[in-house]
Amino acid sequence: MLNEKKPVSLFSATILVIANMIGTGVFTTLGFQLADVHSPFSAIMLWVVGGIVSFCGALSYGELGAMMPRSGGEYAYLTEIYHPAVGFLTGSVSILVGFGAPIALAAMALGRYSGAAFPGVDETVVAVAAIVVITLVHLVDVRFGCHFQNLFTVGKILLIAVFIVAGFSMPDPQEIVIPQSLGELGAVFSPAFAVGLVYVSFAYSGWNASAYIAGEIPRPERNLSLSLFLGTLCVSLCYILLNVVFLLTVPAAELTGKIEVGYFSAKAVFGEGGVRLMTLLICLALISSLGSMIMVGPRVAAAMGEDIRALGFLAVRSPGGVPVRAMLIQSSVAILLALTSAFNFVLTYVGFTLTLFTCMAVLGVFVLRFKEPHRARPFKTWGYPVVPALFLAVNGWMLCYLVIQRPLPSAFCLMTVASLLILYRWLTNRQGESDLLQEEKR
Questions:
Q1: Is the peptide bond before 102 cis (omega within 30 degrees of 0)?
Q2: Does the predicted TM-score (pTM) go above 0.70?
Q3: Average pLDDT in the chain
Q4: How far apart are CA 145 and CA 346, in angstroms?
Q5: Which residues in the chain show pLDDT less than 70?
Q6: I need a surface site. Which of 11, 221, 314, 349 has the fewest CB within 10 A?
Q7: Beta-carbon neighbour count of residue 61 at 10 Å?
Q8: CATH code linked to domain 10-374+381-432
Q9: Residue 58 in contact with residue 341, Cβ under 8 Å?
Q10: In whole angstroms, what separates CA 348 from the centre of its chain?
Q11: For position 366, what pLDDT does the model report?
């Protein structure tokens, strides 16, 4: 595997969580949320609830990761909790499009923002070049890739901090009215609020990033849960404060239905130069997010390659600990999606599928507490059983909503599961026949 000294420190693991979470969503979605909930207070509560749910997920994964400190995320957890076939399903979806589609989406967004900053630049060329260059960076060495991530993500956090401080220092801020009665507070639990929460949950996705590299973190029974906890807490605070700044600096009516929320606020705070600052901030966010996904995604494929002989080629690592072939395959898929723009359709049902597997992993906290109550748990989920139950309740509701509102992606999800189960059966039968032949030769 790797050298005795594991290359991903607690700081780097936390940075990976932050990098994976903060993309463009927080800078672009508030306007659409205001169009649904019509209240600045309710819009802020969306981000508070989203942070609480993500934190519940991080605490649950902390228990699972401390018990099963192996790279691979949901693949490793579901394989042990339920059955190798279930792990194969989530791992295969991750390999095929689970990381490739978000990487393509982030790269294309980077191309668009670069085109806005430098007119005449080919956006597709920028997108493909970004995937290639960041892939090469992470192919060099695990530690080198961590240093790259740390640099860009710390720069992103510092810019966000500057923006937040400047926003709160503005004279004559807009008023955010807090509900004065239970009737007004009830709007927080309205169907419109629930719809807005679906989009907020996508902005919070990535809170489980360090679980994919658990085997490369020293003392994972301690540091994995800490990285999930600290990373999710940091991002939740950033998201809530950023949205408060947006609403303090620009009237809610001017933001409603708009996608350029970050630009409007930056312009109000810094004048015309604020647009350039926001472009730089978003580009930094996208680069660090790209790097995080390109780094952690191949660990799923590598873990599958270690378990399934037919996929053994995916487990090959460089002297620096990088799963080279898995990373090259993932980046190739991302480039293909970026060139064809097919990821727009793919993302719709991938989001449903991955949320389903994440819920199964959190449900595994209950399953293991029942099946193996005496098993060593270096970290136990705080607030059990309320914390994992809250995560499952909110995400379960969102899955039901997606099934009702978008039945086609759900149907594709079921087709994907059926196809991958057939593939798993074929691979295991082939491996069984191979083992039988070897026994006969002996």
A1: no
A2: yes
A3: 86
A4: 28
A5: 1-4, 177, 179-190, 341-351, 402, 405-406, 409-410, 432-442
A6: 11
A7: 32
A8: 1.20.1740.10
A9: no
A10: 15
A11: 97
